[in-house]
Amino acid sequence: MSKLNKDILFLIFEEIYDDSKSLFSCLMVNRPWCETVIPILWRNPWCYDINYKNKNYLFIIIASYLCDDIKVFLTRQGIQLPSFSHQSLLFDYLSFCRSININTMNIISSIGSSLAYNQFILQQEFYGLFMKKFPGLKYLDMKSIKHQIFYFSEARLRLNSLCELICDTSIDSSYFYGLAWLCQYIQRLIIINVDPNDYHGVAELIGVQKNLKYFEWKDDHYIYAPGPDRDSYKEILLALEKNANIITHLNIYFIFISRTSPNVFPKFLKLKTLITGFGFSFSKEQLKMCVYRELEIFKIDYYDLKAASIIIENSGGRLKKIFLGSSYELDDYISDFDDDSLIFIRRVYENCLSIEHLSLVFPPSEQHFDEFEKLLKTCQNLKSLLLVIYMNEVEIEEEILFENGEELLKILIKSAPINLREIRFLYDVKFSLESLEEFLEKWRGRPALSIFTCRSIYKEENYVRLINKYKDNRIIKDFRCESFDNVVNENFKM
């Protein structure tokens, strides 16, 4: 029975893996709970919301594993180590660990010494320990790494099992060649492009992978560094092409245009997630070649509405999430905004009957409101909406904003699907006190609604009083005035 109880506890704790506060609390309940939680916490001890420099528990535990000769050597270097021995530990903590975070290791090593040279030596000894003690390495965040850990004698055994790698392009190519030699079964690869000068090593690492499911590339620079054929990203894309038949999640945002993209993107036939910007790289004919029948999550910039409509039309009807990113300054990018937004709405309700989370941006015309209402009536699985009502005018009278809001609320009351739980509103729409109260009163009997907005008007006393009234009646789950970034961030929750 005790074995069964531990198994059940383990399954429960696995469900709250990301909730560090709850997991740490479980340590204090009793010994069986503690024994069950410790392996979960130590699988990736660097991922929790901890101030590692001020709370030096990890440093003390890791340093206690060092052999006496190494401790003596490090102490002579002026590095301060804890005094207790390995035998005083209650658990063999490192035997549970399957991850390394280089940034956290840099912070922890600074506890032993403030000198850069001493920190480097201490880190080297710690990484040597990890290669000996870890049963296998599943996760490695090696941004800013200075140590060639693949040269440790046990590195082949540990790195061969690596499933997730996060890195940046500031690392010397030789390091990527070393990883390519040892790590060929990475499933999740995230690359931050901070130095666009040399992609040879990164491309080699990508190209040798045999089980790559998730790939993410993020440009974090503004340096234009074209290759010999004036395509900065050609080498990366051609390496990715070797994995096109197995990649299911692709997240790529290039700052500059890539001429190779239209040749490679149509080959990712098994995509379930696509997060990208097509921009000006693709012609209409090239976009029609991008057919993703298994696509479930699609995120694209708001100014790519034309491209988005084509991708949606050629999808297999499985789309559940469609997000439009960026700042929604539409007049700077979209010349045919009215027509493009209208077509986008139509393509959604014609092809996405399973859609649950959706971003829409459109002007408050009668035709657009009519199409929006058709979408609500057709897409009955909708759970959350981001609605951007945009008028391409410098100054808009407040009366117009209230009229937009009133019309929008009428449509939502009349046609919103029963599953709708969350609505986010942006830009040229406001709700008068009367319209909002009428809407909330008519929402009575439906599931409680969460509302996001970034307009400060709803912080005024009369609005707060109204909102609290309907919170008390459980018609509103929450009504939040947040920053613009939080409202557009699909991962930001109440």
Description:
This protein has 494 residues and is of the alpha/beta class. The chain is 40% helix and 14% strand. It has helices at 2-15, 20-26, 31-41, 57-63, 68-76, 102-112, 116-133, 155-159, 173-182, 200-207, 234-241, 261-264, 284-288, 305-313, 337-351, 366-378, 398-415, 433-443, 461-472, 484-488, and strands at 99-101, 139-141, 164-168, 188-193, 214-219, 249-253, 273-276, 297-301, 321-325, 357-362, 384-389, 422-427, 449-453, 476-481. Strands 1-2-3-4-5-6-7-8-9-10-11-12-13-14 form a 14-stranded parallel sheet. The longest helix has 18 residues, at 116-133. The radius of gyration is 27 Å and the shape is globular. The two termini are 39 Å apart. The relative contact order is 0.04.
Give the SSE layout.
Elements: H1 2-15, H2 20-26, H3 31-41, H4 57-63, H5 68-76, E1 99-101, H6 102-112, H7 116-133, E2 139-141, H8 155-159, E3 164-168, H9 173-182, E4 188-193, H10 200-207, E5 214-219, H11 234-241, E6 249-253, H12 261-264, E7 273-276, H13 284-288, E8 297-301, H14 305-313, E9 321-325, H15 337-351, E10 357-362, H16 366-378, E11 384-389, H17 398-415, E12 422-427, H18 433-443, E13 449-453, H19 461-472, E14 476-481, H20 484-488
Parallel strand pairs: 1-2, 2-3, 3-4, 4-5, 5-6, 6-7, 7-8, 8-9, 9-10, 10-11, 11-12, 12-13, 13-14
Provide a concise account of the structure shown.
The protein has 494 residues and is of the alpha/beta class. It has 20 helices and 14 strands. A 14-stranded parallel β-sheet has the order 1-2-3-4-5-6-7-8-9-10-11-12-13-14.
